[in-house]
């Protein structure tokens, strides 16, 4: 739907909503849990989901290229269309379903580029989910705030990600156009933009953690979280753009990278509370920042220097 040089703005909006939802949810949930009965949480989620599904059904149009090409060919064809039996239709559906499910796994196992991106994206997403799951406890336990007031601190995450959306998309497109004017376009042109986010993530983590440990003013903690959210989102946005630039089946490549990231995102909140209980928010976030510096910070340099070579490697020939 969008050319590579114009992909920044579209990706900014498309990737914002999945990240923004978990940040906005606690703001609504804090008020609902304090002023309404707990079961209203499920009613509100169901009502919003139903409304979004209906709006999407009415307004969204098919954009999948193979489907559009089949429809276009059918309109131009002078031959009567082949009518499949119900059994043949079911067999065709099963074949396409099997291909769609197997392709992400095949990409993850066979392509080192996907494996590295999955590792980086997983660590990025894991730290984000850990922060989301423990952020309210800082304000309720350490700052003695009510659930509603504590939930309002999630606005810092919203501000960081919204700012990244508005500023990041045009910047990514600008960098890509400038580099493409000097040499043929390639996915590695996303690396300079990725470097901005990579460096901001540990800065935000350290400011957020040590400000909370020192019990400084709430604004200092929220500024640290906003910086972290800004860098976290820039990095994720650049990774998604890289995947779409490189792989023909962009959705499958994205799914392959997210297979590992969602496993890590599930595991981090499990050990996170115990880590913070033992180390505190200052040293706990220092540990996370150190992990990120060792694993995540080299990502732009690795892609810029060795990205083209890595893209040519297949662990299994013939894929």
Automatic annotation (TrEMBL):
All copies of domain Major facilitator superfamily (MFS) profile, residue ranges: 1-311
PROSITE patterns given in the database record: MFS (PS50850)
InterPro entries: MFS, MFS_dom, MFS_trans_sf
Transmembrane segments: 40-60, 117-140, 152-172, 193-212, 218-244, 256-276, 288-307
Membrane topology: Multi-pass membrane protein
Keyword Membrane: yes
GO molecular function: transmembrane transporter activity
GO cellular component annotations of the record: plasma membrane
Main location: membrane
Keywords, in A-Z order: Membrane, Transmembrane, Transmembrane helix
Subcellular location per the Swiss-Prot or TrEMBL entry: Membrane
PANTHER family linked to this entry: MAJOR FACILITATOR SUPERFAMILY, MAJOR FACILITATOR SUPERFAMILY (MFS) PROFILE DOMAIN-CONTAINING PROTEIN-RELATED
Protein name: MFS general substrate transporter
Natural source organism: Pseudovirgaria hyperparasitica
Source lineage: Eukaryota, Fungi, Dikarya, Ascomycota, Pezizomycotina
């Amino acid at each position: 739907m969008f050319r590579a040089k114009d992909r920044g703005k579209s990706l900014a909006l498309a990737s914002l909503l999945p990240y923004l939802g978990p940040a906005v949810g606690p703001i609504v949930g804090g008020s609902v849990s304090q002023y309404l009965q707990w079961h209203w949480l499920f009613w509100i989620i169901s009502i919003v989901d139903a409304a979004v599904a209906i709006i999407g059904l009415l307004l969204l149009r098919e954009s999948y290229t193979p489907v559009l090409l089949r429809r276009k060919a059918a309109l131009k064809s002078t031959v009567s269309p082949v009518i499949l039996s119900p059994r043949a239709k079911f067999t065709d559906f099963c074949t396409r379903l099997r291909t769609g499910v197997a392709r992400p796994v095949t990409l993850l196992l066979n392509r080192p580029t996907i494996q590295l991106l999955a590792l980086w994206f997983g660590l990025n997403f894991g730290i984000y989910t850990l922060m989301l799951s423990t952020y309210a406890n800082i304000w309720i336990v350490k700052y003695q705030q009510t659930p509603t007031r504590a939930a309002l601190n999630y606005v810092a995450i919203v501000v960081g990600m919204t700012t990244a959306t508005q500023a990041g998309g045009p910047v990514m497109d600008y960098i890509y156009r400038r580099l493409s004017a000097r040499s043929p376009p390639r996915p590695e042109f996303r690396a300079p933009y990725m470097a901005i986010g990579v460096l901001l993530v540990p800065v935000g983590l350290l400011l957020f953690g040590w400000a909370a440990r020192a019990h400084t003013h709430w604004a200092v903690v929220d500024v640290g979280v906003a910086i972290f959210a800004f860098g976290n989102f820039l990095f994720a946005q650049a990774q998604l753009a890289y995947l779409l630039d490189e792989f023909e089946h962009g959705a499958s490549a994205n799914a392959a990278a997210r297979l590992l990231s969602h496993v890590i995102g599930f595991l981090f909140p499990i050990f996170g509370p115990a880590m913070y209980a033992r180390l505190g928010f200052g040293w706990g976030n220092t540990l996370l920042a150190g992990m990120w510096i060792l694993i995540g910070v080299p990502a732009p340099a690795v892609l810029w220097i060795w990205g083209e070579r890595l893209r040519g490697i297949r662990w299994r020939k013939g894929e």
